[in-house]
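Board notes (copied after class):
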Amino acid sequence: MIDSHCHLADDKFAADLPAVVARATTAGVTTALCILSADEPDEVGRAADVRAAWPAVQFAAAIHPHRAAAYAGRAAVAAGITRAAAQTSAAVAIGEIGLDYHYDFAPRDVQRDVFAAQIALACERDLPVIIHTREAEDDTIAVLKEAGGPLRGVLHCFTGTPRLADEALALGLHVSFAGIVTFPKAANLREVARQIPADRILCETDSPYLAPLPHRGKRNEPAWVVRVAEELATARQEPLEALAGRMDANFSALFRP
């Protein structure tokens, strides 16, 4: 099983990273995609520690929409920083990038510019994109469509509407589900998960955030991606082993080294 999105280079894992990795491998998690904040040098630097602890891990790097405010009028600079971090970490994807209108930590027009610039970088380098979108469905879809050309990538930690899922699928994207899908009030999300084609679904932890039940409220970690996969298998009425194998194949096809 694969955790398709986690933040193992976050300082929340610095004290016990080897133990976190050991628990993941014991749980049957074979690899993970570690997301790096491209404009945080300390986090990019910790990628070497993550790689040493878990050689199978792959990396993605980008500037998150929460951090886009620093690049007002400088979207090209943001793309350059992402390029450098991606090269340093041998990244297999550009992400996470996107729009977050829930917190609005950055002006929305700046978020859109930085998002578009990093999509252009991904297209230039023929890398998939990892998309964060929250309360910004229309603009997310618009920016993706304006990018032109075929896109590869994933809507990570999906919590959107059926329309957003349909639009993403039409653009050729995958859809990934995290621990929220296990929450009691997430019935609508489980219904969306049931409808995703077998060749487009992924699962993740987004650790250290959003731990699934019964671990909700604790620091999340890659070992618990198994719990997410179990919930998806139940929602889709599929055997866990078959779904996990399908999602692993989807991951390998999308995030090819």
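Comment from the instructor: The radius of gyration is 17 Å. The longest strand covers residues 93-100.
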